[in-house]
């Protein structure tokens, strides 16, 4: 009889909560007008050729470490070097943050033969992971005089091709 009562009580008790799925790792998407879209994790970024840039923040030098945007775009198949001419020179890159903030660069700004700007996707600040409000990915444009194109909480790089103008009549 006791066994029946225990079985009835167990049947009525709520099931233990299911384990919640592990959160998806942070990802940086690279897509748009490029032949090889990418979805990069922090581990992927750490495996690519690294560089660092130094910025002045509140009067102190801060070192950001990461990967040149040119390296990432090259892996996605964006034109560079000798292929960056003609219509390819009307290509842009939109960098987008988690909160929807977006900025635009020309593809040529990242190329060694044109702008050669050391714009990077950073994942480390002074040797440590970025603060939550900055990362996990942050776009750093060290040659910009204003920091407005530095994108915190970077989630996406979209390659955009300007459409050809309508034929003149």
Please count the helical segments: 3
Helix content: 10-25%
Strand content: 25-35%
Mean of residue pLDDT values: 85
End-to-end gap: 95 Å
Described by the principal axes of the CA atoms, the overall outline is globular
Overall strand count: 10
Computed over alpha carbons, the radius of gyration is 23 Å
Question: Could you give the order of strands across the largest sheet?
Answer: 2-1-10-5-6
Class per helix and strand makeup: alpha+beta
Described by strand count, sense and barrel closure, the largest sheet is: 5 strands, mixed
- Reading the helices and strands in chain order gives HEEHEEHEEEEEE
Regions with pLDDT < 50 over 5+ consecutive residues?
1-11, 13-17
Explained architecture:
The structure is a single chain. Helices cover 14% and strands 33% of the residues. The chain is an alpha+beta fold and 169 residues long. The strands form 2 sheets. The protein has a 5-stranded mixed sheet with strand order 2-1-10-5-6. Strands 3, 4, 7, 8 and 9 form a 5-stranded antiparallel sheet that branches.
């Amino acid at each position: 009889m006791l066994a029946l009562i225990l079985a009835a009580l167990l049947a009525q008790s709520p099931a233990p909560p299911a384990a919640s799925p592990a959160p998806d790792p942070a990802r940086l998407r690279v897509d748009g007008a490029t032949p090889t879209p990418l979805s990069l994790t922090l581990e992927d970024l750490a495996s690519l050729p690294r560089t660092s840039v130094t910025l002045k923040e509140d009067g102190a030098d801060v070192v950001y470490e990461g990967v040149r945007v040119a390296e990432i775009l090259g892996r996605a198949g964006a034109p560079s070097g000798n292929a960056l001419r003609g219509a390819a020179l009307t290509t842009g890159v939109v960098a987008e943050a988690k909160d929807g903030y977006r900025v635009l660069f020309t593809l040529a700004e990242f190329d060694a033969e044109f702008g050669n700007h050391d714009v990077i996707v950073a994942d480390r600040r002074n040797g440590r992971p970025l603060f939550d409000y900055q990362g996990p990915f942050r776009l750093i444009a060290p040659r910009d005089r204003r920091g407005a194109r530095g994108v915190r909480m970077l989630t996406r790089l979209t390659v955009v091709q300007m459409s050809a103008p309508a034929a003149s009549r």
